[in-house]
Amino acid sequence: MDYINLGRTGLKVSRLALGCMTFGTPNWAPWVLDETQSQPILEKALELGINFFDLADMYSAGESEVVVGRVLASQPRHKLVLATKLYNPMSQDPNDRGLSRKHIFEAIDGSLRRLGTDYIDLYQLHRFDYETPLEETLDALNDVVRAGKVRYLGASSMHAWQFMKALGLQRAKGWAPFVSMQPHYNLMYREEEREMLPLCQAEGIGVIPWSPLARGRLAGRSTDASTRAQTDKTANALYDRSQEQDEAVITAVRAVAERHGRPPAQIAYAWVASRPGITAPIVGISKLHQFDDAVAALEVKLSNEDVALMEAPYHPKPIAGHQ
């Protein structure tokens, strides 16, 4: 496994991040793995040299952090880069959500407790909060960094103007800055190429894309083949099965895969990982053999012709993934 600096920081992260939404309790979603099922996947990630684990407090309503924290508890803390996120509701209480100062202080303590750690390496905004003044959010985030509870700050899907406004405020106030962005990005959804990715490159922001396989569609899996495919409402909201252009992209990926003698998943991962400015795609693993494609993809060398063939069918789409 190779390691790379996260943006302009000195933090070294593996070229793949393990997405941890899959781990927690099936009571939250039927496709989620419990601790016994999650343990061999997390241990395999460590064996492969993956040190970057991406969580969120909302995954399994906190149980994902509990499971991951217990499984990784035996590892030296300095070897792990634990990332988690906040914003989404954690209960029915109106203050148990969002990015208010009150919720940020409570959310960070909750994540620390569930993960069983003294600090979070990368604390990320899961989404933009339209109901809380941005200055309030950024001031509170600065305080949790200065308190030693968080090492670095990151953000996830939002508009480029919102992210740049935040960066500008942080600089003006001398607050701890965002060092990473986690956007929705894959061959079937490339809207981030318009503004967000160029912004991140210009500002030295690390980029860790989510859903690099478009919820399995770019891997050539049947959209009805798994429990997750049948029950994942987010996937159905993000990708319209009826769009001919998406099918054309999938067909192009398959053609390049045949040319290389590799599975489509490796090609789709390789495309994301090799795009300018990308730090580490976030890979979702529910079966051990899925690591094979993710790791092998890092060795795939796509030609300019390969890239052009896969990118040609794309047409602009409405923004998806900011909510």
Largest sheet: 8 strands, parallel
Query: How many helical stretches?
Result: 12
CATH-defined superfamily? NADP-dependent oxidoreductase domain
What is the mean pLDDT?
A: 95
Helix content: 25-40%
Gap from first CA to last CA = 33 Å
Report the count of strand segments. Answer: 10
Strand content: 5-15%
Write down the overall geometry: globular
Can you offer a commentary on this structure?
- The protein has 323 residues and is an alpha/beta fold.
- It has one domain: TIM Barrel.
- 39% of the residues lie in helices and 13% in strands.
- It has twelve helices and ten strands.
- The strands form two sheets. It has an eight-stranded parallel beta sheet, covered by helices on one side. Strands 1-2 form a two-stranded antiparallel ribbon.
- Helix 1 links the parallel strand 3 and strand 4.
- Helix 2 packs parallel to helix 3.
Highlighted features:
TIM Barrel, 39% helix, 323 residues, globular, alpha/beta
Explain the layout of strands and helices.
Layout: E1 3-5, E2 12-14, E3 17-19, H1 35-47, E4 52-54, H2 63-71, E5 81-86, H3 101-115, E6 120-125, H4 134-146, E7 150-156, H5 160-173, E8 178-182, H6 196-203, E9 206-207, H7 227-231, H8 233-238, H9 244-260, H10 264-274, E10 282-284, H11 290-297, H12 304-311
Parallel strand pairs: 3-4, 3-10, 4-5, 5-6, 6-7, 7-8, 8-9
Antiparallel strand pairs: 1-2
